[in-house]
Specification:
The structure is a single chain. The protein contains 15 helices and 9 strands. With about 400 residues, the chain is α+β, with helices and mostly antiparallel strands. The protein folds into 3 domains: about 100 residues, Immunoglobulin-like (Sandwich), CATH 2.60.40; about 110 residues, no CATH class; about 100 residues. Strands 2-3-8-6-5-9 form a 6-stranded antiparallel barrel. A hairpin with a 4-residue loop joins strand 2 and strand 3.
């Protein structure tokens, strides 16, 4: 079947209760004291109370007190200074003011604020503090507002809470593989429901939409966006409720990038058996603004097909110019030595002074440099027996 599908692509597209449980008093109970006796007993009790000082807190280091950060600060068990960058990083210097060891828990969901900036702890943790010894702690946070200023500044504990993030934070605790960028994107998707253009590093094919805030500090790689969407789907968030999923460019961007291709295939339900159909459909009837991206995908993952197909697309004068340019550039993306003479011929045929000819020349130069770099990096690796293992932290 693929051979039939290939034929369609090899030809360029032309434009167009319990009280009873208490013990009973014994029968031979002592008689009740007189008023005078009672007064003496009371005074003795007061004297005993005054004489016995309050029992100090245990300073047994093997059994430290345990409390959450906010409670410890409120009860003045410790002093705390916080500085954060308004996004993923918070540094805390904690000093135990008591005579006992304290284990301080920093729960996920704890919030901090600095002016209009608000961040939330996304990774819970705990630290044991010895009396009088300051300890610096690094806390992973995420901005809860895309308007946060990403600058180093002092922060203070907040009483705020965002229950809508509870499921996300609970899910993330046992999954350290979720990147900081993916968590940040997921937080903003739930709190502000930002569009793709506000969080993607790649340029939107249809042009960037104007937003109220400069969100450049929260733009992430495509892999982080896919990681955020995969995480949000896992906690039960519907794809259709997220503005970030509306733009079709995310799908093709994830598919053409080798480092994100597997994640994109899992998220969009594309299998190795159906991948070719995806590229064919994208190229022949995809969104006009991203249709030419399919040529790059074919070149990268089906290079043999591309070496036969792309030169025809480049030479067909009735094909849209954007597709001809993409076909020429995609030849270099095959990273095959066979593509180099093809590009050199296209330079001569199309004319070195034309846009297409210059594109071919540039693609040939790029591919030549890449092939030379690959050749230079081919070195023999020698394994030495008995080498000591190195632990990397």
């Amino acid at each position: 079947m693929k051979s039939i599908a290939l034929c369609a692509l090899l030809t360029p597209v032309v434009a167009g209760g319990g009280l009873a449980l208490w013990p009973q008093a014994p029968i031979n109970a002592m008689p009740s004291p007189s008023i005078k006796q009672a007064a003496v007993v009371a005074l003795a009790a007061v004297a005993a109370t005054n004489a016995a000082p309050a029992k100090p807190e245990s300073a047994d280091p093997a059994h430290p007190q345990s409390m959450d950060l906010h409670t410890a600060v409120q009860r003045e068990k410790l002093t705390a200074d916080f500085r954060g960058n308004g996004r993923e990083n918070m540094r805390a210097i904690l000093t135990n003011k008591t005579a006992a060891n304290i284990t301080v828990r920093v729960p996920a969901g704890q919030m901090f604020e600095a002016g209009s900036n608000v961040v939330i702890v996304v990774r819970a943790g705990e630290v044991e503090l010895k009396p009088g010894k300051p300890v610096e702690v690094s806390i992973q946070t995420a901005a809860t507002r895309s308007g946060n200023k990403v600058v180093d500044a002092p922060y203070q504990l907040s009483f705020g809470a965002l229950p809508r993030l509870d499921s996300l934070l609970a899910y993330a605790q046992e999954r350290p593989e979720i990147t900081a960028g993916a968590l940040q994107t997921a937080v903003l998707a739930l709190v502000e429901n930002l569009p793709l253009s506000s969080v993607s590093k790649f340029t939107a094919a249809g042009g960037d939409l104007q937003t109220r805030f400069d969100t450049s500090a929260f733009r992430v790689d495509t892999g982080d966006i896919l990681g955020a969407l995969t995480t949000l789907r896992a906690i039960g968030t519907r794809d259709s409720d997220l503005a970030i999923t509306i733009d079709p460019q995310l799908k093709v961007e994830g598919m053409i990038e080798p480092s994100t291709r597997s994640a994109a295939m899992r998220y969009y339900g594309i299998t190795p058996e159906t991948e070719w159909d995806y590229w064919k459909t994208e190229l022949l009837s995809g969104e006009p603004s991203t249709r030419h991206y399919a040529l790059y995908g074919i070149a990268r993952f089906y290079p043999e097909v591309a070496l036969e197909m792309l030169p025809k697309w480049a030479r067909e004068t009735k094909t849209q110019n954007v597709l001809r340019v993409a076909a020429i550039q995609a030849l270099a993306d095959t990273q095959r030595p066979e593509a180099l003479p093809i590009l050199q011929r296209l330079t001569d045929e199309l004319g070195a002074s034309t846009e297409l000819g210059r594109t071919a020349a540039g693609a040939a130069k790029h591919l030549s440099a890449h092939l030379a770099k690959l050749a230079a990096n081919r070195t023999t690796v020698v394994a030495f027996r008995g080498s000591a293992g190195v632990t990397q932290f």
